[in-house]
Amino acid sequence: MGPGPDPGKAAPRRKLITKRRLLPLIGLTLFVLAIYILQNEIQQFSWSTFKGHVRLIPNLQLLLALAATIAGYLILTFYDKLALIHSGIRLPWLRIAKASFLGFAFSHNITPSLLVGGTIRYRVYSSYGISGFNVTKVVGFCAITLWLGFMALGGVVFATTSVRLPGSIDWPLPNLQILGWIFLLLTAVYLILCRNIRATIAFRGKIFQLPTPPVAAGQLVVSSMDLIASSLVLYLLLPPIPGLTYPLFLAIYMVGFMGGIISQVPGGLGVIETILVLMLGSFIDSGQILSAVLVYRLYYFIAPLLLAAMLLAVHEIRQRRRARHASIQPPDE
User: Fold this and answer.
1) Rounded CA separation 210/193 (Å)
2) What is the mean pLDDT, run by run of 10 residues, along the chain of 333 residues?
3) For residue 245, what are the domain limits?
4) Collapsing DSSP states into helix, strand and coil, what is residue 203?
5) In sequence order, which residues have a C-beta less than 8 Å from that of residue 92 and are 6 or more positions away?
6) What was the pLDDT predicted at 38?
7) pLDDT of residue 17
8) Per-residue confidence (pLDDT) for residue 328, from 0 to 100
């Protein structure tokens, strides 16, 4: 009788088969979740009401807002690009753009955003041979980058504009200038640490290190540009408002953005609208504000999620075909 099967080879093969069966379930679950979210969002729209909202906005502004949305999602790809550079991983930009777009389109709409964005990225990046640990580093890096940009841009905006919060918003400070200077101080501390601390930290066999100064500077630039682009989408959808300059609107938008993040509501739904109505009420009728926000959510949240759901479906079909093809290949002798 010949030798029996080698249990050392059988165990890794069983793990590989289990992984091939499990990963498509993750993608399918996320796809179904996206369809569910889209269905709930679309139910809030009345076609006649939506047409009435859109008619209030000039065609040129609609096109410019669409261009700002596309530019914003292109900027978002550099979050992942910087994260991979920091981890020493090289990957073609189109693959990075795919993982980034899917991750952000889902996490913008579904909470908890870190878990959802991380699961999507793992599903895509693992198909390119990137380990789960490195995907976790990418997700954490992107989250830190967002907050760094918020502090850098928010610091400049809050410190240089005298934005006062309405009395109905419970806030211990009379205005946001003090908060702006605190943000700028924290941003400066981060840059100093990245410049002067190059030591690595080992934790459970994994190595961590602060980004290099060029990467850290890139984090501030990319995330600040991201926030500017997303705010510009909404600003372009508002009617001309005397006295409301873009820097002032950006400060108000940053307050709404901060409230949305703190609330942990997907996309800051309801929170951003409330803050904008309270802070822009002296400039414009609340109905016009909500009309603009309605189109803004369609542009920046719902349409990208719909596109991402279709792109994820295509990705899963391709991965399933590859897994089926690999499963019928004869095992290595």
Assistant:
1) 8
2) 50 47 52 54 57 78 94 96 94 94 89 80 90 91 93 93 67 74 95 86 70 95 96 90 85 83 64 76 74 87 92 85 70 52
3) 59-321
4) strand
5) none
6) 46
7) 43
8) 67
CB 70 within 8 A of CB 76: no
- Ramachandran region of residue 243, left (φ > 0), alpha (ψ -120 to 50) or beta? left
Terminus-to-terminus CA distance in the chain, angstroms?
Answer: 18
Give residue 15's pLDDT: 47
Residue 124: closest CA among 144, 139, 111:
139
25 is a domain residue = no
What is the C-alpha separation between 165 and 256, in angstroms, rounded? 11
Tokens of 79: 């979050």
Tokens of 280: 């822009």
Q: Quick count: other Cβ atoms within 10 Å of Cβ 35?
A: 14
Q: Three-state DSSP class for 315?
A: helix
Asked if residue 38 belongs to a domain, the reply is no
Residues in the chain: 333
pTM value > 0.85: no
Separation in Å, CA 88 to CA 30, 82, 209: 29, 10, 12
83 pairs with which residues across the strands?
none
Number of structural domains found in the chain: 1
Domain-located, residue 200: yes
DSSP 284: S
Task: Give me 302's structure tokens.
Answer: 């719902």
Answer yes or no: are the C-beta atoms of 101 and 308 closer than 8 Å.
Answer: yes
In a domain, 43, yes or no: no
DSSP-derived letter for residue 44 is T
